[in-house]
User: Fold these one by one.
Assistant:
Number 1:
Amino acid sequence: MIGGCTLNISTVLKQGALIVRIDGEMDLNGTDQFRNTIDSALENSQVKYLIISLKGVSFIDSSGVGVILGRYKKISAVGGKLLIANVKPQVARILDVSGLLRIIKVFSSESEALDSL
Amino acid sequence: MMIKNQIKMTFSSNSENVGIARVTAAAFAAQTELTLSDIDEIKVALSEAVSNAIIHGYKDMPGDIECEMTLTEDMLEFVITDMGRGIADVDLARQPAYSSDPERMGLGFVFMESFMDVLTVHSAVGKGTTVRMSKKLFNEQH
């Protein structure tokens, strides 16, 4: 996907967790859409577990990392958990450098993340 | 130092243009022998510099951002300039975790420093900021 396009975001409820699947490039241009979609889905579903699947994410910068951290803080404040699944190597590197991997667990699949809850 | 290729572009401080600048930088870098991993790093650094200009330089107000990409025999250089608010304390702004926005991590300059070989920042309050960053091209000479 070329830069500048909006993200494709879908949400699904499974085993009491909200799974958010993202496709595209997570930069400044997609942060509002990402934040609003997750926050309203969390509010509507009233679940405490959030799994963000980054299978379709080929790029992330500090804007994208910042929004994930914001959701982590929000869900942790109500005793919930945020997990990440399906991370491409180039995205994993950014998450690592950012320090996010020290506080958020990453799984190789959504089902592995679900099983850990 | 002889310039082998150069692109200069000016675009508005619109978040859609972060991706366009990033993709242009990747295409410009692809003419070198840099690896895909190196080019991924350049994309992140460019994205951070342009995002900073939009968010902090212009505070989401309209403005122009200049982006100059230069290839020499041993260096790939990117210069991103805004004519926005400027940074009062550049050294403080470059500190990890420093951010004027609670929803952000203050990682912009950290990523630029981590992924580029040279980073210099010149800023004047009320006049704007210029970020100059380079990647060395070791394979170009040998």
Number 2:
Amino acid sequence: MELVYYFDKELGESPVNKYLSQYLKKERDLPKIKKRKEKLLADIDAKIRYVFGNGGKVDGRISFPMRKYKYFKIKHRKNEELVIRICYFCHNNKLVLLSAFEKPDNYDKESEERAIRKELDIADNYRTNFISNPKLYEEYK
Amino acid sequence: MKSINKKRTPINVLAEARRSVDFRMFSNDAGVRIRLASEVFNSRKEKDLSQSELAKIIHSTQKVVSKIESGDTNIGIELLNRIVKELNFNSESLCRVFDCCLVVNWNFRTGDSEFSSEYASKNGLVNNFNSLQTNFK
């Protein structure tokens, strides 16, 4: 099996890579911010690799099924209020990372729910696009 | 006049991050947390305990157990010690968590073996040793 990012033509890059780019340390960042960013990226990378090592199987601890969608999610707690979700699915011996977004633990506003639903629909579109064009990927390095 | 609206070339974020020494250290830490998460989860299931029941035994909360099992938290040495004792982790489980080698002192005459718990097994070394020992006996 191969671990890959879905590549979006419109964005000109992988949506997961684009999401993760906010955590790439910058020169002007304070040392503690740099460390926090690196730690977060290392944690996410370790979880992705763990799920990949498991063949993409859902274990109910790190990877979970999605209700109403034909893909899965990797959860990583960013802080006490926010969880990072990385959507993925397996196709033609590839584990494809579709998209990533943040979801608050508790939300009661309809607008927030709509925003999350939109993210999930976007990931579903990526999945459909990849199935129709399996060349839309880039290597996970 | 030069155009300043150059198209940004996407950087492979994780490949870039991997170049840092700190990132590699954090990666190792995350690996230990995830392996510990699997060991705790499997041992808890073997003992047929719920997260709340385990939390009660180790004097913690269900939320903490859940975070340990999802690899989201760093636990202190005291809590780790309680988990190891209450879930009866053997040297093989500890070896898997800390990903190092196990040294076995085995007396070939008596067949007695002594696993040195300060080291850990890697790549099924203990299993191989156990089968070797059984065959020898």
